[in-house]
Inverse folding.
């Protein structure tokens, strides 16, 4: 608040000076050009308040601004689907539950499991029986009590039994029966457990639940859960035609959301091959690191793509650019020492205290970089 009296005094001191200067200059035939519209002169004793700089070109990294919507990483999102028919007996997880690969998600009571275990047990019994026959036939063959063909026949029966064991074992693995459960199934005479666990195919978080207790599910068709690894997410952005040539796959991206006092880092992984007819933009996909799972699906973020492109850009200090009563950007251009004119400009991005000028100025022109506010006030009350 203490700056306002100083600013007011400075403005009041500058404005009359400018006004008196123009009154004096109207009496001089050599400076009648200063009466042209838009030109005004600052007296010598006021020039110390102003600093000027030349419009110059520079090379800088082009930053492309866009907005995006958070989505799950489809490369690390999958569905949990049961391989057996039957009713759900227990559900162990819910939406938002973190899970690891092979963790049980729910249990299904299914006769398919009982049949598969029974088939496996029968195959194991037959394999053991044929193995004992082969061993006895080998002893008899060594003693010359049987023909070779009898031994080979018993050997073929044993091989067939071993094949049946592998086939039935593969069926259990397809159902998702664990090695511990298979070991238990080999114990003859024990009760067959008809419950089968539907397990998580990946490590991640349950992002969708589509079943309820008692629901009868169908093998290979009923989707029980969607699981996603939310340590990284996709941000679906949109790039305008004018910025598209500068954006390349792999460009680093900084993203922000007003809800979080931090930046998120990502990289462009895909640039679309079509233009959205409604927005006239090209979609881009940004793979974004998501520490703590802060970014949620369908959140909005502001994104800045740091492209590798560099361009010769006209720049002036940010302090040189003001806004007129129509909120359009303007600068004050020095025509000669002490004489200035207001000019409308077109601006671009900002970097390191500089702002790009895309129209209205030429390289080498001199603009007021400090004190423009005083000139604007003085010009408004002439």
């Amino acid at each position: 608040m203490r700056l306002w009296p100083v600013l007011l005094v400075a403005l009041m001191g500058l404005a009359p000076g400018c006004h008196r200067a123009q009154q004096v200059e109207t009496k001089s035939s050599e400076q009648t050009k200063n009466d042209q519209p838009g030109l005004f002169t600052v007296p010598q004793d006021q020039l110390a308040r102003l600093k000027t700089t030349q419009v110059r070109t520079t090379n800088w990294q082009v930053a492309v601004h866009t907005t995006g919507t958070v989505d799950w990483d489809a490369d690390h999102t999958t569905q949990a689907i049961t391989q057996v028919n039957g009713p759900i007996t227990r559900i162990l997880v819910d939406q938002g539950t973190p899970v690891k690969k092979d963790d049980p998600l729910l249990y299904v009571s299914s006769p398919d499991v009982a049949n598969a275990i029974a088939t496996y047990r029968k195959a194991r019994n037959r394999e053991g029986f044929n193995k004992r026959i082969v061993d006895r036939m080998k002893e008899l063959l060594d003693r010359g009590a049987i023909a070779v063909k009898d031994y080979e026949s018993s050997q073929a029966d044993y091989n067939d039994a071993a094949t049946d064991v592998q086939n039935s074992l593969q069926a259990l693995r397809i159902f998702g029966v664990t090695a511990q459960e298979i070991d238990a199934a080999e114990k003859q005479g024990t009760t067959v457990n008809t419950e089968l666990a539907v397990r998580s195919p990946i490590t991640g978080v349950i992002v969708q639940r589509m079943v309820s207790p008692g629901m009868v599910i169908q093998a290979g068709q009923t989707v029980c859960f969607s699981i996603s690894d939310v340590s990284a997410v996709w941000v679906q952005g949109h790039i305008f035609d004018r910025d598209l040539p500068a954006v390349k796959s792999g460009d680093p991206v900084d993203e922000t959301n007003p809800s979080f006092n931090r930046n998120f880092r990502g990289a462009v992984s895909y640039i679309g091959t079509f233009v959205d007819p409604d927005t006239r933009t090209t979609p881009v996909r940004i793979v974004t690191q998501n520490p703590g799972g802060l970014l949620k699906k369908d959140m909005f973020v502001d994104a800045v793509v740091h492209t590798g492109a560099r361009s010769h850009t006209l720049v002036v200090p940010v302090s040189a650019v003001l806004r007129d009563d129509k909120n359009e950007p303007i600068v004050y251009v020095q025509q000669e020492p002490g004489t200035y004119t207001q000019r409308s400009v077109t601006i671009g991005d900002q970097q390191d205290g500089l702002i790009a000028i895309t129209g209205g100025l030429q390289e080498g022109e001199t603009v007021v970089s400090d004190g423009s506010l005083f000139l604007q006030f003085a010009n408004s009350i002439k």
